[in-house]
Amino acid sequence: MYVCLCVGATNQMVSDAVAAGASTSKEVAAMCGAGGDCGRCRCTVRGIIEATLAAAPSGPTNDSLRHLALDITPVGSR
Predict the structure, then answer these.
(1) What is the CATH number of the domain that holds 43?
(2) N or C: which end of the chain has fewer CB within 10 A?
(3) What angle do CA 23, 28, 29 make, to 5 degrees?
(4) Which pTM was predicted?
(5) 46 phi and psi angles, rounded to 5 deg
(6) How many CB atoms lie within 10 A of CB 48?
(7) Which helix or strand (DSSP H or E) is residue 14 part of?
(8) Number of structural domains, the chain?
(9) What is the pLDDT along the chain (78 residues), one digit of tens a residue?
(10) Which residues make Cβ contacts (< 8 Å) with residue 27, sequence separation at least 6?
């Protein structure tokens, strides 16, 4: 599922960044872009970081991360 619409980053991309060593939202943003623009998704990114680290070494499934998704509506579409 998409986590960051600004750059089109998915929960899998964030999890992959964490698996590659990112442990903060700034590090994730540097690796895959999620949370680096408007910042609306940073809370979700942090939740995915926590879930991914807690589930290590096997990693989380999409179902275990589904509750972290936000209703991300582009500004102006409201």
Answers:
(1) 1.10.10.1100
(2) C
(3) 145
(4) 0.70
(5) -60, -40
(6) 27
(7) helix 11-19
(8) 1
(9) 999 999 999 999 999 999 999 999 999 999 999 999 999 999 999 999 999 898 876 555 555 555 555 555 555 554
(10) 17, 21
